[in-house]
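Entry 14. Structure prediction run on the chain below.
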Amino acid sequence: MTVLGEFGTEFQYTVGEYLVRHRSILDALTKFQEACARVNRAVAKAATTCGCIEIHVSKQKLPESLLIQDFKQMSSTHLDGELCEHCREVVEAELGNNLFYLAAICQLLGFELNDIVNKEHERVSALGYFKMG
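Output returned:
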């Protein structure tokens, strides 16, 4: 089963075609890191500037006898609310930018993004809960 299918290959090829300014692997790596930071910033601004979401962080209070398969139901995302339309658009655009630079790194290093996603999908499926972390 291919997760991204033909789309992933086409996306990576398109990124490779338009990757002009950041063809250096160092440029691509640092732009990817910047894109990750921008995703974090967009989510933080949704909470601190807009207020459409609230982040309530505390230690996960889980019983010691909790079965691993019950962890998902008992643990918290620390999020309250939903992204408003504007914040959703901003976060989505930043995630797209993140994907662009991920595809660029794959292209520059000779990886197929599709193959990486499929292999990770297989690992997650095979290892299940033991893949956490």
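The chain has a mean pLDDT of 85.
Filed with the rest of this week's runs.
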